[in-house]
Write a structure and sequence with these properties.
The complex is a heterodimer of chains A (about 110) and B (about 110). With about 110 residues, chain A is mainly beta. Chain A is about 0% helix and about 55% strand. The termini of chain A are far apart. Chain B has about 110 residues and is an all-beta fold. Chain B contains no helices and 11 strands. In chain B, the strands form 2 sheets. In chain B, strands 2, 4, 5, 6, 9, 10 and 11 form a 7-stranded mixed beta sheet that branches. Chain B has a 4-stranded antiparallel beta sheet with strand order 1-3-8-7, with no helix packed on it. Chain B is globular and about 35 Å long. Classes of the chains: A mainly beta (about 110), B mainly beta (about 110).
Chain lengths: ~110, ~110
Amino acid sequence: TQLLEQSPQFLSIQEGENLTVYCNSSSVFSSLQWYRQEPGEGPVLLVTVVTGGEVKKLKRLTFQFGDARKDSSLHITAAQPGDTGLYLCAGGTGGYQKVTFGIGTKLQVIP
Amino acid sequence: NAGVTQTPKFRVLKTGQSMTLLCAQDMNHEYMYWYRQDPGMGLRLIHYSVGEGTTAKGEVPDGYNVSRLKKQNFLLGLESAAPSQTSVYFCASTTGGGQGPQYFGPGTRLLVL
């Protein structure tokens, strides 16, 4: 069973602060996806990274895939209350598009 | 274009009762999935389907059955509900063959008493 560990599990910060959340595994993944889930809704894809060392930016969010494709990070610059939510990473190994989800990081940004 | 829809949104069952959760997608996606989400456990795959008429077991299939009679619909059945099946159930779909995103429905909250 491939496991994805996310840290921290909970994070409460003030508006304007920077933060980084991590997604780690002992397994190699062909792709790594990041989702954000708001209360009462399903997860929504933020980004997919597929190449070791790849960095993608989405406005104030920066995603990085580790060189060995076993880990990833999400950095948020100048967090806003609208960034509040559950951030999930999901590793794909190809074949039938099955992915393994981490437990998630619950982020609260306080105005 | 409604994306992925799930019915019902919320349901309360008594132990031993049965029910069917319906997932529908209008994006012509080949692959569909059923997950359950529990605190501290994350999203766990129950069953999935790679096309009309095909289904396969995921990580936690016991106590559930599924059917994919039409490409756009994926049904999840609980034949004899147990309190351990209290959870939030999500359906998702995606296109095959790539690194595409999974599109999730809004979820069904199920409480088994």
